[in-house]
Amino acid sequence: QVQLVESGGGLVQPGGSLRLSCVASGFTFSNYAMRWYRQAPGKERELVAAVSVGVQTTYADSVKGRFTISRDNAKNAVYLQMNSLKPEDTAIYYCNAARTWWGQGTQVTVSS
Predict the structure, then answer these.
(1) pLDDT digit string (tens) for 9-67?
(2) Residues with Cβ < 8 Å from 48, sequence gap 6 or more?
(3) Residues 92, 101, 52, 70: is their CA dihedral positive or negative?
(4) How many CB atoms lie within 10 A of CB 83?
(5) Taking a C-beta distance cutoff of 8 angstroms, is the pair 12, 91 a contact?
(6) Strand partners, 18
(7) Hey, CA dihedral for 27, 31, 36, 42, is it positive or negative?
């Protein structure tokens, strides 16, 4: 069965960095676009970043220039490098494949 397992979340001070990882199994990873979403308390889930099969990337305006999405097809993994973190980046971050499969989420908290 399909599994997406996120890791790398945690507590970080404003201005700090985190790198999220998502390891996939149960499907042909290289055939699918991968996305990171996030959901803050009381808010709807929103798309943060996406990487296509052809490694084209797109970002939400709120994270452009600060976050970088990448993929490693040999490792069935997608990453989200998050720099210059702000308190408003606090959320549960979810990995998504093909707009169909979801990971369990990893908590990111940005606070001093």
Answers:
(1) 999 999 999 999 999 999 999 999 999 999 999 999 999 999 999 889 999 999 999 99
(2) 35, 36, 37, 38, 59, 60, 63, 67, 80, 93
(3) positive
(4) 14
(5) no
(6) 82
(7) negative
Kindly report the number of other CB atoms within 10 A of residue 100's CB atom: 9
pLDDT tens-digit series, residues 53-104: 988 999 999 999 999 999 999 999 999 999 999 999 999 999 999 889 999 9
Tokens of 66: 């600060």
Quick one: three-class SS letters along the chain?
A: CCEEEEECCEEECCCCCEEEEEEEECCCHHHCCEEEEEECCCCCCEEEEEECCCCCEEECCCCCCCEEEEEECCCCEEEEEECCCCHHHCEEEEEEECCCEECCCEEEEECC
Give the chain's length.
112
